[in-house]
């Protein structure tokens, strides 16, 4: 099933828009001290400079993740950790939540603002789908593996009374209630194969281009990312044309694509030729190694590194920064270093097919602009957010400084692998 989604006009809940006088809050001194101790980039260090130096970090909230409370708190924590960009769903409420998190972080410490990026798709795409099922169709004695495997806690089931009358019209029968929490589902697909009764459906959707163009023209969006398979240039062109003059408001245009083997470079060149006549800003290629898998384990990052090695060695690729995603986690920088690709400027192979690289003098751009972290970044901070929520309910993380400190340590440990922060 495929749907067309428009941008949601709901505004971020008012209680989350009200920020206290955080600059004067003594309780947050430990947070401020930690940010200063590790050397998070100051107001003068721009996201563009990070791309050039090869230490750009993007937080991926998820093209389909729409839990505005978590998104707001994640954005606050990762802004304090010094990310350069926060990528989120092309939805007004989500964009407002990201900007609220960013500004609340900047109220605590005067850091520069990360860019806000929205994600759209030109065709059906793994990142733009949701799981769906009717829990009343599930046997009561199902061991509920769907709930267990979901990395986003997006499935919640409880026993309750059926809404349908039983045949004798007297007692309601017991059934499962709840199901998929739509705004938390980001379409990772892990629940689909584990259901023993094949009850879970996939609902895919394509973001509406006109609504996206209107959203871009509002304040608070700096970049757009087009997810594409790269196989259907006509779909890409249709989306690009549909965005029209809204792109003149942007500082960066990213194209996220999977590794499609030998045709990857020709697809990239075709897409670049479509964009190039009216490309108003810098562009970036997001190399989506193994989509939505960074939280699974160490090995998940191998495909994104292999994709980067392959592209970096190709001479006739189109202009644009290269950035890893899809399977990225705490091991990605080590993997890049092993391949000689971290903050280097060129890659060649010698007669023995060994990789030779050149290190980064100040005047040259890094070959790999940086790394985007999604599932792994959300998992390490999400643990703290869940614990806070189970203790206090829906909350602004800065109201609980010990939780904020714990979440910030997690975020700094990840972002610091790219930005080489001082130990803390
Ligand atoms: S698709 Fe992924 S995020 Fe969505 S409910 Fe299934 S396991 Fe959870
Ligand atoms: S695994 Fe399938 S049958 Fe069991 S609770 Fe989940 S969706 Fe229902």
UniProtKB/TrEMBL annotation:
It comes from the Eukaryota. Residues 129-160, 176-205 form the 4Fe-4S ferredoxin-type domain. PROSITE patterns: 4FE4S_FER_1, 4FE4S_FER_2. PANTHER family: PHOTOSYSTEM I IRON-SULFUR CENTER (PTHR24960:SF79), PHOTOSYSTEM I IRON-SULFUR CENTER-RELATED (PTHR24960). GO terms for molecular function: 4 iron, 4 sulfur cluster binding; metal ion binding. Pfam families: LdpA_C (PF12617), LdpA_Fe-S-bd (PF25160). Keywords: 4Fe-4S, Iron, Iron-sulfur, Metal-binding. This is 4Fe-4S ferredoxin-type domain-containing protein. InterPro entries: 4Fe4S_Fe-S-bd, 4Fe4S_Fe_S_CS, Fe-S-bd_prot_LdpA_C, LdpA_Fe-S-bd, PSI_iron-sulfur_center. The keyword Iron-sulfur applies.
């Amino acid at each position: 099933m495929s749907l067309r989604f428009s941008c949601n006009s709901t505004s971020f809940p008012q209680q989350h828009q009200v920020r206290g006088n955080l600059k004067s809050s003594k309780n947050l001194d430990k947070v401020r001290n930690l940010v200063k101790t590790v050397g998070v980039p100051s107001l003068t260090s721009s996201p563009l400079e990070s791309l050039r130096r090869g230490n750009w970090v993007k937080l991926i909230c998820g093209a389909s993740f729409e839990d505005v409370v978590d998104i707001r708190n994640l954005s606050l924590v990762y802004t304090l950790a010094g990310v350069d960009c926060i990528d989120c769903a092309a939805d007004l409420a989500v964009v407002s939540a990201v900007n609220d998190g960013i500004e609340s972080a900047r109220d605590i410490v005067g850091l520069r603002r990360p860019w806000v990026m929205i994600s759209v798709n030109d065709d059906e795409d793994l990142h733009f789908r949701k799981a769906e099922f009717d829990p009343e169709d599930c046997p009561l004695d199902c061991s509920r593996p769907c709930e267990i495997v979901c990395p986003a806690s997006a499935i919640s089931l409880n026993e309750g009374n059926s809404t349908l009358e039983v045949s004798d019209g007297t007692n309601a029968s017991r059934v499962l209630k709840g199901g998929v929490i739509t705004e938390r589902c980001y379409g990772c697909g892990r629940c689909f194969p584990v259901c023993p009764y094949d009850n879970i459906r996939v609902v895919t959707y394509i973001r509406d281009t006109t609504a996206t163009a209107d959203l871009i023209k509002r304040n608070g969006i700096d970049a757009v990312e087009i997810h594409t398979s790269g196989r259907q240039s006509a779909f890409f062109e249709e989306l690009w044309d549909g965005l029209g003059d809204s792109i003149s408001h942007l500082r960066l245009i990213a194209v996220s694509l999977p590794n499609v083997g030998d045709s990857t470079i020709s697809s990239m060149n075709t897409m670049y030729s479509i964009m190039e006549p009216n490309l108003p800003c810098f562009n970036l290629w997001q190399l989506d190694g193994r989509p939505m898998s960074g939280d699974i384990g160490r090995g998940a990052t191998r495909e994104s590194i292999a994709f980067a090695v392959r592209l970096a060695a190709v001479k006739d690729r189109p202009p644009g920064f290269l950035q890893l995603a899809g399977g990225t986690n705490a091991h990605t920088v080590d993997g890049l270093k092993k391949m000689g690709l971290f903050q280097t400027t060129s890659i060649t192979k010698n007669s023995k097919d060994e990789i030779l690289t050149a290190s980064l003098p100040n005047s040259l751009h890094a070959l790999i602009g940086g790394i985007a972290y999604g599932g792994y970044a959300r998992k390490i901070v999400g643990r703290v957010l869940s614990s806070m929520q189970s203790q206090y309910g829906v909350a602004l993380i800065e109201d609980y400084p010990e939780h904020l400190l714990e979440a910030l340590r997690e975020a700094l440990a990840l972002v610091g692998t790219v930005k080489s922060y001082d130990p803390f």
